[in-house]
Design goal:
Elements (H helix, E strand, L loop, with lengths): L2 H9 L5 H32 L9 H15 L2 H9 L8 H34 L6 H5 L4 H10 L4 H4 L14 H38 L6 H20 L1 H15 L4 H18 L2 H12 L1 H11 L1 H32 L1
Helix pairs in contact: 2-3, 2-4, 2-12, 3-5, 3-13, 5-7, 5-9, 5-10, 9-10, 10-13, 11-12, 13-14, 14-15
């Protein structure tokens, strides 16, 4: 092993091992909770909803849950690395495979969240206007195109040890170009979709405020959906983006090793937080369609539906009882 490889390994060591073991525990918990949740949603999309025949945006939501499922399989390996005191796998093949899965599926999750909001934006703000997204959303073309466009974006980070940030510390022009391209991919993959989400949310909310007559229920559901998407996005992806920016500043200015280690821990911790997306995305499915929520409950939790029906029947009977008594009294009085 040469000096540069030894330095690279040191950069990838977990300097605060107890904290990284806590991060590993969080990822294991996310995996345990999110795997059956996303698996049940995937089963529902395929066998109950038959998303490929649907006239709604179920095609986008299916790809979203698929991306979340694939990303979940990275968590056990990542947890093992953290427990062993490593920020990434020491095996180069495993490291690159993990990085590819992370970048591709996280990018797909972000993309399909954004596309879902754009689709709802066109349905609400421009309901009569024809657009390419509406024409293709019932077919797999646009979904396949999104996956294909994401593939080239995984190449620059895989050329370097992206997970052990050393970007922009070299004086080699060729290396600096790769580093810069890597960071551009990372930030644009988050900031551009977030800007789209903010725009769509603002326009839909403005549309709801200006609509004084007619059915406002559809508009309210759209506002709830895009707001939920933006909250999920802000909670899961923006913190690690800010932490990455701070980490780059610390590295470029060559601050003390202690500060660099602390910045590493904060970035890795907030990156773990981004995996919460796999748990929060089902909220998007529920707010996208009341039918989906009802179908999910009736399929996997039928006892909850039966309890709700019994309570509704009981309340209806109670409300009807005084009326019947009143009628009887009128008859008797007459």
């Amino acid at each position: 092993m040469n000096i540069s490889d030894d330095h690279q390994d040191k950069d990838c060591d977990a300097t605060h091992q107890e904290i990284y073991k806590f991060f590993a525990g969080v990822m294991i918990l996310i995996f345990i909770l999110a795997l059956p949740l996303n698996g049940s949603v995937l089963h529902l999309f395929i066998f109950k909803l038959k998303f490929w025949k649907s006239n709604t945006n179920n095609v986008f939501l299916f790809n979203l849950v698929l991306a979340d499922m694939l990303l979940l399989f990275c968590l056990p390996i990542k947890s093992y690395n953290f427990i062993m005191g490593e920020r990434r796998s020491g095996n180069d093949v495993t490291c690159k495979a993990m990085l590819f899965m992370f970048l591709l599926n996280r990018g797909a999750s972000i993309a399909f969240l954004a596309v879902t909001s754009i689709d709802r934006y066109f349905n609400v703000v421009h309901p009569g206007r024809k657009n390419l997204l509406r024409a293709l959303k019932r077919s797999p073309q646009i979904s396949v195109l999104i996956w294909l466009l994401l593939l080239p974006l995984t190449i620059p980070p895989m050329m370097k040890t992206f997970q052990c940030c050393k970007s922009l510390k070299n004086h080699d022009a060729a290396v600096d170009v790769v580093d810069s391209l890597t960071e551009v991919v990372f930030f644009t993959q988050i900031l551009i979709p977030f800007s789209i989400l903010v725009y769509c949310t603002a326009r839909i909310v403005n549309r709801l405020r200006r609509k004084t007559v007619g059915d406002r229920t559809k508009l309210k559901r759209a506002v709830i959906l895009v707001t939920t998407v933006m909250v999920v996005f802000s909670l899961c992806f923006l913190p690690c983006t800010i932490a990455r920016m701070i980490l780059l500043i610390v590295r470029v200015q060559d601050m003390s090793q202690q500060i660099q280690d602390q910045a590493d821990v904060v970035f890795d911790g907030l990156l773990v937080l981004s995996y919460m997306d796999c748990l929060l995305d089902p909220l998007v499915y529920c707010f996208s369609s009341t039918k989906f929520k009802a179908l999910y409950l009736s399929t996997y939790f039928p006892f909850l539906v039966q309890t709700a029906v019994r309570r509704a029947d009981g309340s209806m009977r109670k409300s009807a009882q005084p009326l019947s008594c009143k009628r009887d009294s009128v008859v008797l009085d007459s």
